[in-house]
Amino acid sequence: MNTAPAPFVRTLAPKERARLPEATFFELADEVLADSGRPRLGPLQKAIIEVRDPDLVLQILAGPGAGKTEVLVWRVLYELIVRASDPTRIMVTTFTRKAAQELEVRMVERTDGLLEVAAQKGVAVEDPRVHDLRIGTIHALCDELLTEFDAEHLEEGKEVIDEVETKLRFLQCRAYAFKAEGKNLLKDILALDTVTSLFTPPWETHMGGINEVELALTLINQHIETWLPRCLESEKPNGIETQFGPAGLTADLTRIQKMWSFQLEDNHTMDYALLLRRFLQRQPNLNGSLDHVFVDEFQDTNPIQYAIHMGWAKDQGVRLTVVGDDDQALYRWRGSDIGCFDNLEPDCEEGGLSYRREVLEENNRSSATIVDFARSFRESTVLAEDSLPKTVVSPPGKEAGDPVRLVEGDWTSVCKQVAEEIDALGAGRILQIGEPKPPTAAILMASTSEVKSTKSTRPALEMHEALEARGLRVYNPRNKAAARVGSPVHDLLGLLSYLIDPVTMAPAGKPSKKDGKRRLVGVWASCRDPEKDCFAISAPPPFRINDAHAAIQKRVIKSDGGTLGAPGPVFGPLLEYLDEIRDDLVSEPEGDIRLSIGGLVARLLAKEPFRSSGYTISLFRQALFTQLLDANISVTRTRGAKSLERPMVPRREADGKIKWPDQYWSMLHAFGQLVAAGGQDDLEVEAFSEDAISLLTYHQAKGLEFDHVYVAMTGKEVDPSSVLATMLFSGESPKYKVVDDKPKTSNREVMLRATADREREVYVAITRAKQHLTILHAPKDTRPMMKLNQGIGDLFASATATKVGDLSVRSWAP
Amino acid sequence: MSDVIEVSYTGDLLAHRRCPRAWAYEKHVGFVPYEQVQAMEGRLLHHAMEWLARRFEDGHGLASRGELQERLEHYYQVLRSRGIVTAFSTREDVLNRILDNLYKDDDDTAKLQRPVETVIRGAQHTEYQLKSVKKVIPERFAGKSKILLTGIIDLVLQQPDALTYQRVWDWDDRGELEGHVEKREVAAKAGDEEIWDFKATKATSDFRQDYVRQVATYAALYRERTGKLPVRCVLFFVNERKKENRLLAIPVDDELVDNAVRWTVDQVEALRATTVEFAGSPASVAGGSLLARDQPVGKRVTSDLKAQCTACGQRYDCVEYTTSIRSSPTNPKREVDPTRVDRS
pTM value? Predict the structure, then answer.
């Protein structure tokens, strides 16, 4: 048979369903809400929930705690129950998978409640089949829709890979994939500080904090997600080229993007940016597949996502409901543009699309005092000028709650005080069956990096240690230290490096002046020194590989007091074990021992020191290693006999050296660099976070809420790099120069937006608190980002300080 | 921390009952298993059934063996590229097994076997997603107050013509949802609404009782959604060689499915207890099936579980495994199991 299989249509032919009258729907909804202890729907909520035929685009501006999830759910149910829409033709995009889960739970709860109430009242309501709704992140949904409706995409069967696998693939190909006309296009562009200075993440204080891989991928993504949708058609050059050159920079970026896309597609994969690009190109094929698209967290939309959403509305007549808060837009550094949110209304007008905006301004989450504090902060900063107008207030009768506190002192003392307070709450310990749940607590900081350096200790690390000193569990996944020395990730990679390319001592050093004998030095096969690698146990790889893996191996061997010639008590037995495994693999006939690299790691994890780690961060880092290893294996899956999934088959050559197949060298090359580059975060899994005190960045905290919130590092320097990047990649050309690897500008608009970005981070942090909010400040601490936000400082200026030990505490009440 | 325990019936509940130790390391913490046993065949089977049903509904008629084979070959590659493997068979073996069990013979133009054709013709919904939120007492569930139970009904069928089942499940204990298979004919009536679940195992699987509980729970959730209880549930053991044993009809009623939900919630409580135990000391969580917990150590690996155990990444220091499977505990280097990773 030569015909291609027919593309799948996911649903059976929808059957006509009965519509429920609107008045009855709202009656039932009010009863459901009352049963859940929530207030009934007011006229504003009903206006939002009602899907009106004239409206094509509804923009819901929802402040923190305003109940946007609730109105979103009821609007979707209105579509399904009052308008009897087909659920498979409704899409709801969320920012994270967790948000998708929470939305699904709420959707199911409300639906169940409504059906139950309806049954009690004898009102016939058909199953709205909420389970058939398309709810997920935009990437997951785009992949799903393309698979379902685009036959070519389905046939290609390309896999969307995650960020780790993307980095690994990049590491494997970057030496050769970007060459043209004798130059390495990517290397040339990364040598331009006018480009690279624009891409420092908000928590990094210096350029050295971002590695080349992340930089390159961020650059390519910005090109795909901003320049392509905004400038490709008009061929407007990138603003960097306009201002600084070199001529052809924009064209080179496009070539680099295509070269990278080729690398991915040639391996039957695509990354998130490429997926969205593909979706935008193929969106016309999906005409008629959807009726209504809901977009949550619309303020974090990037230009390519915006183009997709407007494509639904403009080109396909799909209704669009977007929800968000421009005061909570935090992702400009990842390519989002608040301009998408702010320009929706004029874009709709220009496109002849009917538009409506509604504003939800009541904060039901926080105490009245916290709501007032947040509003005062907003009104006293540039946010009031830069954002759409709104006034967030408490609902009538809301309890005032405790004053907001500012706790100041030496950072060590501050950390101890916080740990003591949280301990007293009963939080941060594993809950046993039968125990009541304690209040939730979080500490939010601009940076939660725990990377140790010789210069100074990271504030987040001090906080972490203060909490652990009291026996409290801490959840800080974005610590950048998950693969550092001492982590199982680091150790296990060092052990795999030892298996494949053991570093041994050999007389390959410079001759001694005393006796002329060559000194003993460490040698390994991939060291690229013929005078040394001739002593190595393994045969050298057939291509050049980065020797970061060897450095890791050496650190592991020395980490328990051992030396290269005499391993220590912890890793010595493991190295012996690996020697035996290696000997067995080369001496047995092929097929007699079937041990894959994954199988070997499973064995290592059953041994000390790994197995006795207990339920600690070490356990989660072992799991992290298996995920990183799996990503390495994934890269080779389609290579048949050369896949890392296969049993290991090293062979002893005539000269006695052990020859390893190429894929093992490629793995060490990429994996070694990934770990050596640093900046690896821990897993973000429910099990890790459970019963722990959350130590989070402002970005991570978005969408979350806690009973007690402590906020530190509120006054970092305003950084214009993300604003500049967005504008430049949109074809604009704001003036800037590079000083000490950072972009500097006197452009008022840029600085206003950049300042607003900083204030948004603080605003998001302070609005996570439900009952208790405490700002932390160490006035004499000169470490980066430790200053107090000016706006916060002004609010406390007139408050009297009281002493608590060696700390000063001020209270703010309206 | 989320207030909700999200529990997939297959991925969590059944996996936990098979082996709490493997579940805790893999699902709870996130260890990637280095081999995924049986995943490929089950997925191919489900995909085959869904594709056949959808194709028929779209007006393309019943697919021939050759047409389905082409489709499965493509999907096989998609799964391989996503890390799903067959540990014990070649690609050809797996595909032929599925096709042999669905079609009358091995010719490219072969027609579907009668029960399969009935299913395809009568399918009302395929891959019917179920999600149900149950409120629970936080003190019993280590702080969680809601369970989001998810599952997928493979097929909701309205009998196009009357199928006769040769095997029926008889309930012995409706409270504990225990029963046995009776060799007895039951004739469905045209129009009977049923929910079907496809299993890649044999009809004599050790976990058959759990599968029965699973579909009974699904029947309860289906009733929640639609207001209607299916007439019966059916387990379709696609790989069962004896054709008369392939279909197992399970009668249900309101009380029974309510008991199924209660049983399921109890299993979630057990799962939460495992997470608490695991948090105390991960390596101490015992391996082996919960179904055989009353057996001594070394006897808790059922024949169905054996295949999973021999590829489990947590087996090397699992007391249950080392006692029951390993022939030479002092020789940790050799793989004593004659497993073969798919070479295609």
Answer: 0.90
